[in-house]
Structures are given as C-alpha cells and as structure tokens.
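Thread: Fimbrillin family protein, structure

OP (GT): Posting the sequence first so everyone is looking at the same thing. Length is 335 residues per the record. Can we get the structure tokens written out before standup tomorrow? I want them in the notebook alongside the other entries.
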Amino acid sequence: MRENKLSIVVSTGILMLIVAFVSCDSNTVPVSNSHEVRFTSNIARKAMADSVWQANDEVGIFMLEHGTGTAATAQAVGRGNKHYKADTASQSSGFTPFDAANTLKWDDLGMNPAPFFDFIAYYPYVTNTNDMPELEIKITDSSTEQDTGKADFLWGRTNNVQNNTSQVALKLKHLFSRLIVNIGPSTTVDASAINAGDLSIELSGLKTTAIINLDTGVVTPDSSNSVIMRNISDTLTTMERLAGKRRFEAVLVPTDNATALSSFVLDFFLDEDTYEWEAASVAQTDKGKIVFESGKQYVYNMTLNTAADKVAVAAIQIGIEDWVDGGSISGGAVK
C-alpha cells in the first residue's frame, strides 16, 4: 500500500547579503537578518471533493527544543501553537503568520544558540490548547452535513532541523479515516426514483470525538454521535447522475474491527422512505474487513432495496487512490 502525505515546506525568507563577524566558538550559528521561518505547501490532499487548500485555512505549528522538547514546553517559551494561514486556494499555497505575535523565528546571533529544533504541525488550528499535549477534536455537530475539509485532521512531526535551515519539510499525515459511499440504482429503487427524490445518508454507531496527542500523533476515540455524510455527487458526471448514481463522503475517527462490526450503521433517507444497512449483516468471510484505520480511505458501493432478499454484500476489494489504500465494499440497504 502506498501513502500520500500532505507536505509542508518550511523555509526562511530570501537571505540578504550580510557581513558578520563569526565568533571563534564553533557553536555560533549565523542566521538571516529577519530570522523569520516561512511556510509553504507543495502538495495538498484534504478530505473534500476539491482536495485543495482553501485561502485562510488555518494550521498550528510548534517549534520545539531538539530531542527533549514537547508541545507543552514549546508553549511555555512562546513557540507553541503558532497560528498560520494559507495564502491562496490551490494545491500549492504559502503559509503566513496570522499576526506578528504568531511569527516563529530562528534563534538570534549570539554565543551558543540552539543548533537544532524539532517541529510539530497540525490542521485545522485550534485556539484552546491548555491541556497540552492532548487536543480534543470533534468531527461533527450531528445537526448539519459534515464539513469534511475541516473534519480531516492532519498531523506531522519533523526532528533534528538545523537552526536557520533554508528549507524544512514538515510532512503531515491523515490521522482519521475517510469513507466514500457510492449509491447506484437497483431493481426496486431505480434511477427515476433516485433522481426524483432527495437522498441523504446518516452514519451512526462510531465515535465522533477523539483526543489527539500532539507529541506523538496517537488518536484515542472518545464520545459518540451521528454523522450526516457530505453529498459530493457533483464529482460525478452529468450522465452518471442521470443514471441514478450519487456519492457521499465522511471523515471518521479510527475504529477497530470489533467496534465497527457490532455498532456501525448507515441510514439512507430518500424523501419519506428510510433504508438501513448494518455492518453486522456482511458475510462471515467479510466480517474481519469492517474496520476504519488511520489514514485509510474506504469505498462502499451500495444500492437501495425494498426487500431483504435483495441484500448482497460482495467481497471487499483493496486498492483506493489518494489516501493510504483502504477497502471497497459492495452491498445493499434494506427498506
């Protein structure tokens, strides 16, 4: 399986030509006049249909003492959870500090400056980080369609960066899972019924709050709620939509097999009709494949049926693009 990670490159500004008297002390590290650490993104892949940074997307960055530094110690010395934002809406965007108070700088000229630093970065930015290194993240408020771009949590840590290095690559990875549900017409709920109706999907039985350890990237599931999946049918062609096809997505807190198998449910609402699919209904040979792992994307190909004898769950097939390979499943939801 391959893994595509979101990379953020940290670079200093254009170095001005300076003349400096360097101390005979070999530990003295020369730095630029501005000392400012600048951030740019070279590749973007968030969980959303357009898959790009949006202008003013907000990230938090920690500049740590090398080796022993933590999010909490960086916070204590004024280098923790600095607020940066994306400059443009594109796959490659620069990042600038929210204001002067959030600007990270390299150590100044002088005797024995810190020779190395470690960096932690995450998206989306959270103001309250009083419980370092733990950060509580909620992926939904359950009352509206999930904003998958903001629910997607990215985290990365890069160690052993030399003071005043011109370019520092901070690679962010997905800590949550992504689920895509593709809906197609069936013999009992055909294209005309889907096209004439208003379809939505609600997901339940899984944790929707997680505690993130910013030092390690470890995710601990917390409380549960329902998730209204985001309708991304506009990513389909006009012909596909006319054929009765629809597409939805959701970002999920990672969930182990036993929990997902016993509690995961999808409810499909087509006007006044409700169709339900339970993870426990899959064939015995597929039960071990119902799981949501960190950084993986899963595709479920579903149909809506009015009789139980129409339900059929195919074998889960591995091989999904963009995120780390996850799983694909085909099946039916019963009215």
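GT: Both are above now. Quick notes for whoever picks this up: Helices lie at 71-76, 148-151, 191-196, 238-242, 257-263. The longest strand covers residues 154-162.
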